[in-house]
Amino acid sequence: MLLWSRRLLAGLNILNWITGLAIVAALGWVGFAAPDLFIARARPYHVAHPEAAIAWLRWVTFITAPVILLAHVILTRLIAIIDAARAGTPFIAANAARLRHIAWALLGIQLLDLAFGLVSIRASAATGEYFGWSFGVTGWLAVLLLFVLARVFERGAAMQDEIERTI
Amino acid sequence: MAIRVQLDDLLWQRRMTLTELSERIGITVANLSILKTGKAKAIRFSTLDAICRALDCQPGDLILFDPKEPADED
């Protein structure tokens, strides 16, 4: 179970980098290198202000890039936690720190999602097209849960240390 | 830590080695060494019982409170 989870997470991390960089490259290329091409393609669809869509693409490029790094932090820390659990030492201070790193990374992703929502709402208003985004509480609850779990792990690690030094 | 373990002194008084004590009470030398060097976090009543029986002493002979030492931060 743990071994398969580890393999899955390692695979997901590779996928994160490949697809993430491809998406950022595509968004960046259209947004910065070939905006005229996008405007020309959008013309038959009667988009009200295509330049607003271009601005949206540029913003989304900046918002998406750090997500790759944050997802990398989440996946690698999870792999390290799994490795510690497989070694028979899940309640260690390092795992508590890893969980806290994951919580901060997820918080970063949530904040970037809010930024994405803001630029999407603005772009929707400017162009009359729907730039899909909706607010969700699941991610925020996950952030809270992870910070709580990190604290629990910290306490667990301290208890484990105490047990190990009880003669 | 203001609590001091006097195991070394007791062993010397009884002319006993840590290995001999370990064999008598069934606790590893490594664990007794942790206790002796003051690195232990806690001591079980069963351990205290076994040591006191083997060394023919009272718990107060083994454990000492030194108010001059700073308190444990944990």
Provide structural commentary.
Chain A contains five helices and no strands. Chain A has 167 residues and is an all-alpha fold. Chain A has one domain. In chain A, helix 1 (2-33) packs antiparallel against helix 3, helix 3 packs antiparallel against helix 4 and helix 4 packs antiparallel against helix 5. Chain B has a single domain (3-65), classed as 434 Repressor (Amino-terminal Domain) (Orthogonal Bundle). In chain B, strands 1-2 form a two-stranded antiparallel sheet. The model of chain B has no long low-confidence stretch (mean pLDDT 90). Chain B is globular and about 35 Å long. Chain B has helices at 7-13, 18-25, 29-36, 45-55, 59-62; strands spanning 3-5, 63-65. The chains are: A mainly alpha (167), B mainly alpha (74).
Kindly list the characteristics that best describe this protein.
heterodimer, A: about 170 residues, mainly alpha, 5 helices, about 85% helix, about 0% strand, elongated, B: about 70 residues, 434 Repressor (Amino-terminal Domain), two-stranded antiparallel sheet, 2 strands, globular
